[in-house]
Write a structure and sequence with these properties.
GO molecular function: purine nucleosidase activity; uridine nucleosidase activity
Order of helices and strands: EHEHEHEHHEHHEHEHHEHEEEEH
CATH topology: Inosine-uridine Nucleoside N-ribohydrolase, Chain A
Strand content: 15-25%
GO biological process, one term: purine nucleoside catabolic process
Distance between the termini: 16 Å
Number of helices: 12
CATH architecture: Alpha-Beta Complex
Protein name: Nucleoside hydrolase
Structural class: alpha/beta
Helix content: 25-40%
CATH class: Alpha Beta
CATH superfamily: Ribonucleoside hydrolase-like
Strand order of the largest sheet: 3-2-1-4
Pfam family, one: IU_nuc_hydro
Keywords: Glycosidase, Hydrolase
Shape: globular
Radius of gyration: 18 Å
């Protein structure tokens, strides 16, 4: 089987890092490049962390392109980053693996996205797992970009669950106008993986121990990242299963490998950009009250056992 080509658009903290390793190491995927965006941390740290991950797992040849440093419209939304040294922060500033020796590419991420899809002769799935700023900028600069992307697999949003305000999930809240542009653009296929799905695909301390026991760089790194996530979630956002945490972004990559790892339903999705209390809310019309045609396939659930098995298989030494 020909590996499925993809590009990851990341704001690399701990969960992005696991997604990058899964995409880079699995033989059924061909990770063409990573683009970075301001989000979990400032974009220059996202870029550095992305390079760290690829170097650490032996794939420094995968190019990294730095992208947007701020939201496309709003400059008045301070990103709610916790104290970097606090155990309540699930990412930290720098991932706990060595500094990279590889360097970022000279081209801007948006330029790379536009030119790559213009010249593509095979389908390339675009997987944005941070704020959607780079994707919105690509649409604004090249309207034809929308028709060239066969599928967007987005990590973001939430219907009943939020994690940044009472109404909003982080990735969408950071740049709601960008998200609004993306969902109104008319992409042929949007798959949205919100908190409802990622909070079901929990990874535990026992799973982290299994990953470490693999004895591979990816197994060790993923264990470190997941353990940090579990410490932070236990302190500030405990999950239903004690000593466990979601690894949001990696679930999007797992879906590319086994679509049955998430349960999908067709809904219309809109982004709130005006609400005083609801800025950044992902408005998912689950009862079809808005009379608008579905524009996304939305993950409403996930299979945690399949998800963990995918990680264990991909990070085993033989890969």
């Amino acid at each position: 089987m020909t590996p499925r080509k993809l590009i990851l658009d990341v704001d690399t903290g701990t969960d992005d890092a696991v997604a990058i390793m899964l995409a880079a190491l699995h033989p059924d995927l061909d990770l063409l490049g990573c683009t970075t965006v301001n989000g979990n941390i400032e974009v220059e740290y996202c870029t550095n962390n992305t390079l760290r991950v690829l170097d650490y797992i032996g794939h420094p040849e995968i190019p990294v392109y730095e992208g947007a440093k701020e939201a496309i419209v709003r400059k008045d939304l301070p990103i709610p980053r916790k104290d970097r040294m606090s155990e309540a922060d699930s990412h930290g500033l720098e991932l706990p693996i060595p500094q990279p020796t590889s360097v970022k590419q000279s081209a801007h991420a948006v330029e790379y996205l536009i030119e790559t899809y213009r010249s593509a002769t095979e389908p390339i799935t675009l997987v944005p797992v941070g704020p959607l700023t780079n994707i919105a900028l690509a649409i604004k600069l090249d309207p034809g970009f929308v028709d060239r992307v066969p599928e967007l697999v987005i990590m973001g949003g939430g219907h009943e669950i939020s994690n940044t305000t009472a109404a909003a999930e982080f990735n969408i809240w950071v740049d709601p106008e960008a998200a609004d542009v993306v969902f109104q653009a008319g992409f042929a296929k949007i798959t949205l993986v919100p908190l409802e799905a990622t909070h079901q695909a929990l990874v535990s301390l026992d799973h982290a121990a299994q990953l470490r026991a693999l004895g591979s760089p990816a197994g060790e790194a993923s264990a470190r990242f997941i353990e940090r996530r579990i410490d932070a979630y236990d302190m500030g956002q405990p999950m239903e299963i004690p000593q466990s945490a979601p690894v949001h972004d990696a679930l999007c990559v797992a879906y590319l490998l086994d679509p049955s790892v998430i349960e999908l339903r067709d809904y219309h999705v809109a982004i709130e950009t005006q609400g005083r209390h609801t800025l950044g809310r992902t408005v998912i019309d689950t009862h079809f009250r808005g009379k608008q045609a579905p524009n996304a396939r939305v993950a409403v659930g996930s299979d945690p056992e399949k998800f963990v098995r995918i990680l264990l298989d991909a990070f085993a030494p033989e890969h």
